[in-house]
Amino acid sequence: MRTTNSRTMIDLLFYIFAAITLISALLMVVSPNAVNAAMCMIVAFVSTAALFVLLEAYFLAILQVLVYAGAVMVLFLFIIMLLDVDKDTSHILKDKLTLGASIMGFALLIILICAAFAGDSSLPEPTLLPVSENPVGDGIGIPFTSSAKSFGYSLFTKYMLPFQVTGFLLLAAMIGVIVVSKKHEESSN
Amino acid sequence: MTATQSLLAVLLTPLLSAALIAFFFRRMGKVASAISVLAAACIFVFSLFAIREARNETVAFSWNWLHFGDYSVSIGFLFDGVAATMLTMVGLVGFLIHVFSLGYMANDQGRARFFGGLSIFMFSMLGIVLADNLIMIFIFWELVGFSSYMLIGHYLDTDEAAAASKKAFIVNRVGDLGFLIGIVYAYWHFGTTNLSEMHGIVAANSQWVSGSIAALLMCGFIGKSAQFPLHVWLPDAMAGPTPVSALIHAATMVAAGVYFLIRIDFLFPVEVLQLIAWLGTSVAVYAGFCAYGQNDIKKILAYSTLSQLGYMSAAFGLGYPGIALFHLITHAFFKALLFLAAGSVIHGCHHEQDIFKMGGLLKKMPITAITFLIGTLALCGVYGFAGFYSKDAILIAAGLGNTPVFVLLTLGAFLTAGYMGRLFWVAFLGQPKSDSASHAHESPLNILVPLIVLAVLSLGGGWIGFWPEQLGAIIKDNLDHLHHMEGYAGMHKTVLVAGSTAWIVGLVLSLLFYGAGAKEDRLEQKAAPIYGFLKARLWFDEIYGYYVAKIQQRLAIFLSFIDIFVIKGIFVRGSAGLVGLVGICSRSLHDGNIHSYVYWFLAGLLALWAAASGIL
Amino acid sequence: MTVGLNAFILVAALLFAIGLFGVILRKNTLVIYMSLELMLNAVNLALVAFSRYNGTMDGNLFVFFIITVAAAEVALGLAIIVALFRLRQTVMVDQLTSLSR
User: Fold this and answer.
1) What's the rounded Cα separation, in Å, for the pair B260 and B277?
2) Could you say which DSSP state residue B154 is in?
3) Chain C within 8 Å of A58 (Cβ-Cβ)?
4) Which of B174, B460, C74, C91 has its CA 20 to 30 A from that of B446?
5) Is the dihedral angle over the CA atoms B100, B104, B107, B108 positive or is it negative?
6) What is the ipTM of this complex?
7) What is the pLDDT of residues B114-137, one digit of tens each?
8) What separation in angstroms does the CA of B150 have from each of B114, B155, B159, B161, B244?
């Protein structure tokens, strides 16, 4: 692969997608219209998927787009339009105290984080290890590959129990949804 | 049946009778009275069985009732000669008074309650007589106090009966406080409260005798037997029915104090005995003077009882418990007789009790009058009657031991003859002075027969040679000891002369001074200040009343203030309020606002984080 | 690339903070829920970054499970919100205060 250009290219991509993620997240949080908020959320999820691609977790990127942006947010939009909520105009700008407190808190958080990660006394960085070819590993950790084969291997050996439990969890969720959203015919409960 | 079984029967029969009356027969006077009298008869019969089975030995029986660690309270009997003597007297006199009550209380609405009270009283008294350890005595002591309270307050609708019963109970409780402290101290000192065991310890080594234990235990005796300064309840207790006065406040309960002293006489060092002798002598003389200021027949007899109790404790204080017991028994006979005869008089005169409104009763109620006369002569110590022998012995003992006591006791004998003479001449001779007296009639048979029996006993009760051999051993011992003392013969003559002079002069002088069948008290007429002074009885009641009302009540109010504000207000309500405050604070977290929940969640998270990283 | 782990963690932390402030400051229940999902997403990003720079697969697999569980939880949460709306005809948090006096 190319050296400086590709490296610079990847860095640029990182900056772009990180910016998109953060900006859309911010927009989501402040927009009064719920549908707008949902759309911004979808953008944030998709750009997070892009960040996953940059981290060479291709399977997860696709999973993110399919499940999160595709299923979860569509469900959100569905419910938002079902419930037909009004504009949420009474948010942060109304209450002076909340506004002041939130701005101060936000600023404090940013200062903290930047102090941790940038500047002279920032945390040390690990070096990037090469991607291994063989998904089957020895020892404790499964070596990082970018193939879906390692997912399959791990899920059926090391993470068998969580896998099965997740299956049951999904079943329980499904049953729960059906029960909760059932219309009750009796008059008094 | 064995002695122990007979004794158990003696103790439990009156309890059974009281229980039956209390649960089933509270409205049925006739059945209740029959049950009670039957129980009294059974007591006497069983006690005779017990004496026969004991065959002159001491019967001891003990049963562990409660365990507290290595300390146990036991119920038991100590049936020696003293107990046997007392038991016979209590049984016999008790039975006679029960029979008397059949007639006396025949028209009373609360008859069943009265007989229930009598049965409970018999149970408690017999418990004291038979008990073998201090704790059991104390339990029955309190039970006797309760029975006395219940019986004094029998006439529910009169204020003075209620006040008198409260006074009796409270004054007794003051004495019992000292008693209880004495029991605790005795247990701490000896390691046991059993009488035989304590006797053994003291007999082995006389260093164990402790004056303070004796003085504390004496407090119970002072309360129960109405010695100085707790004598104030006895005259007021006359507000109860006459059989109660006879049984409880003459023959048995007040004698229980003296009996208790006789039981524990091994505990007394010489100083405490001296104190008892002086207390007894002083109350003997004091009561003798007070009796001249009273017009109520029962009150005069009450002061006479006080005086004779003083004689008993003087005898004990002089070192002769057997003679004290002797005087106790003869006093029981003639004082019960006097009270019952007075009851017959009251019954016959339709509840008139003022002697200056009676008169001429010798003609209207002859049998009563003659038995009353026999009782009076026994009380004055006339030669040959029961009272003579015991009083004589006391005077001799005083003369040989302690001359001031002897002089005072002889003065007391003179005073006794004086006021009893005053009573008899005014009430029984002359002309009737009121309607109720002129319509007086002789009482029915069930009142008269006990009087006659008691009169016979007052006559012959002092002839100790005729007593059955199981009874009165300690009395005979003490009398023998007295006989062999130095100077006995001379003192015997002196006492004979002095005693006879006392009663002859007393009776004659009172006849001359007061006059037979007088309308008013001549002393009151001629020397009103003296009469007033005698009537005031040294202002004991007033002093006590002032102390309770002004001093003690103020202290009680102050303590109650502390109780309400400090203990209840600050500690109890305060701690509850604190808990409530915590509740209110925690409730303020639940305001239904999701955002505040999130804030609190974050705050908790930060706290947890700080604690985990060691900052907190 | 020269972008280090720190940068990814920074982005994840900022996303988390934005999500947190959305939870605290918004009144619409659905938007609060979406901000919650944003926080989960930030965690996912951090996990994948750690996994890559650590050279193991475990982080990725954890993310896999997180996505699954988040999906199930969203379904159930939205069902509850719908039921709440049916009862109270509102999803504004300041009107759902029946627990206070």
Assistant:
1) 16
2) T
3) no
4) B460
5) negative
6) 0.91
7) 999 999 999 999 999 998 889 999
8) 9, 10, 14, 10, 10
